[in-house]
Amino acid sequence: MIARKRVCAAKRGLIRGGTPYRLRQQQHGIHDGLLAQIFHFVNQHPSTNLIVIDTLEHIRNGDSDKSMYAYHYNDMNRLREITEKHKLTLLLVHHTRKASDPDPLNTISGSTGLVGAVDGVFVLDKASRTANIARLTIANHDTEGF
Fold first, then answer.
1. Which of 37, 7, 6 is nearest to 21 (CA)?
2. How far apart are CA 54 and CA 62, in angstroms?
């Protein structure tokens, strides 16, 4: 129920801003049809320039018998196929670990394969969950870290 309220609030905000959007709430996993589903959607809606997946964990369903790094890197490379075939941004929402680290990239949950296989990473962190101030760290292949 809470998730539905958040989605409805987000839709109202997008409508007020005049931004056209399409919302798809159910999807396949990376290894059981997600790419085909996205390619079909983008072919039906060629003006698509942003796809947001919230959260990455909801679409992960591959072979986890490999090393964690190989498993994560393979998943990211499968998703990269989307951006290689279409001029669009794929934004994956993922979580950080609870343990702190001076380097925000080290707080991303999972192995370094997640960070190593993508073009860019944004990490938003706060001193505490209820803090009013947050820090955004941006790291990507095109610019130096902020």
1. 7
2. 18
Longest dimension (CA), the chain: 46
Q: What is the pLDDT of residues 46-83, one digit of tens each?
A: 989 999 988 888 888 766 677 888 888 889 999 999 99
Report the C-alpha gap between 98 and 84 in whole angstroms: 33
Three-state DSSP class for residue 27: coil
CA atoms of 27 and 36, how far apart (whole Å): 11
Which of the 8 DSSP states describes residue 59? G
Among 99, 102, 104, smallest CA distance to 125 is for 104
| Whole-angstrom distance, CA of residue 84 vs CA of residue 69 | 22
Cα 129 from Cα 100, distance rounded (Å): 13
Residue 75 contacts residue 115 (beta carbons within 8 Å): no
* In the chain, where the domains are located: 29-140
Cβ neighbours around 112 below 10 Å, total? 14
